[in-house]
């Protein structure tokens, strides 16, 4: 994995339980690679966790990466580590920017829908659209005013940005159907936020016959699928000729790495796409939030960090 060493040039409280981190190159002469709207980086957090955080600053701000982190006390520990351990002046290792959530160049109008900390990639997109002189509107849903981040940046967008807060009067709540039906023809939709919020947005859009090629989304977290009823199966590695047994309560990734197979993973939730592996035979049981529905239906790749097998054997290109 290509890694960069960065220094935390600034740490700022953006809202209740949300901090932003400004990252700059730590080594003399090192340059931070360019990125596009929707990109994220892998952050290696003290303690060993690796987490993905979207870049929220404009790609025109060269030489700096800005991320926003929601502190989740009941999470897997990564966000707590960022809040409690990483301070201004700290050095971190990060991966190169990757983008599975890019802006389409064909959309004449963009509809940006964000929920909670999902505002981070959406804010980057909004700033990029402003700079490109392209048409868009942004709708941002938040639980409370205290937990609403980046207000100064959002106010600068003027009437193109609409905020909805759960604690405000019911009449001012976000109405998905009304917003979708008011869009110009061929509008491209971009959404990021909690899974329930995104599921509601995408279900409404599909119910109104929005084409899949106009729906763009990125999940921050996925639901844990119960393992009750899961059975063991074999994974055959075509290139090495080895066969590895995957237990009923074991992930494919864990089984492979325990057997000494070199497999790169990151989020371990089927979100980031780091571990996507080609499937040569067998039927995967897709449990990720990364692959598009048509990619899952093709059954020629899967995410071993969370997905399993519906057939007794999966043959992988490993």
UniProtKB/TrEMBL annotation:
It comes from the Bacteria. Its cofactor is FMN. Keywords: 2Fe-2S, Flavoprotein, FMN, Iron, Iron-sulfur, Metal-binding, Oxidoreductase. InterPro entries: 2Fe-2S_ferredoxin-like_sf, 2Fe-2S_ferredoxin-type, 2Fe2S_fd_BS, Beta-grasp_dom_sf, DmmA-like_N, FAD-bd_FR_type, FNR_nucleotide-bd, MRET. Residues 1-104 form the FAD-binding FR-type domain. This is Vanillate O-demethylase ferredoxin subunit. It comes from Ottowia thiooxydans. CDD domains: fer2, PDR_like. Residues 233-318 form the 2Fe-2S ferredoxin-type domain. The keyword Phosphoprotein does not apply. The keyword Metal-binding applies.
